[in-house]
Amino acid sequence: MPTTEPPGNARSRRTRQALLGATRSILEKDGFEALTMQSVADRAGVTRAAIYLHFPSRAHLVAALSDYMAKAAGLSESLAKVWAAPDAPAALEEWARHLARYHVRLLAVDRAVERVRRDDADAAAHRARVRAAKLANCRRLADRLATEDRLPPPWTPATAADMLYALSTSDVVESLVADRHWSQRRLADHLGRLLRASFVSAASP
Question: Which residues form the HTH tetR-type domain (predicted)?
């Protein structure tokens, strides 16, 4: 027999989602400088006291934003396609498609973070969490290339991961999509070719 969620729990979850949505909206439209507990409460239509029932500080609010944005943009589903690829070269190409379909959705928030990360501890912590996860994914790709004996010299798993990470940053994506007006499909296709040419050796006979 299906269970019914208590009204209080459902209402609490809706409020939390509204607060996180308001946080993202402020970052995208007004920048990190405008992000305060009061501004989030006002944007979400709740009292300032209500926000503290969910997030004891601005730091906790920003920390929760990473998971909220990842879920909203379909990070798990997008990455699942990368890890399900039949071999390492195919995984690299799927990684390029992942960047094109997922990363472009986060550019506005990334820009807001980059502007203040040296002066705002919450922004710096958010950036560090996101970057650490991305580097771990790049290392997983590089390790798979090495395990399948497809990583050409002079690359090592460590240096290949570092270069994959650098090629996956917001600066690269934004330069092509925003500045040069590339479509997501063009970004995925050309980046996939670049990654394959750089990091995949010929198959062993």
Answer: 13-73
User: pLDDT averaged over the chain?
Assistant: 93
Average pLDDT over residues 43-50: 95
Residues 26, 39 contacting (CB under 8 angstroms): yes
Q: Compute CA distances 19 → 24, 36, 45, 73, 172, whole Å.
A: 9, 12, 9, 17, 30
Tell me how far CA of residue 91 lies from CA of 52, 81, 137, in angstroms. 42, 8, 11
Cα–Cα distance between 89 and 84 in angstroms, integer?
A: 12
Report pLDDT for 49: 93
Domain map (residue ranges) of the chain: 7-57, 73-199
pTM as predicted: 0.88
CATH of 7-57, one of 1.25.40.880, 1.10.3720.10, 3.40.50.261, 1.10.10.60: 1.10.10.60
Taking phi over 0 as left and psi of -120 to 50 as alpha, with beta for the rest, 45 belongs to left
Q: What is the pLDDT of residues 74-85, one digit of tens each?
A: 999 999 999 999
- Nearest partner of 62 among 131, 104, 109, 14, judged by Cα: 109
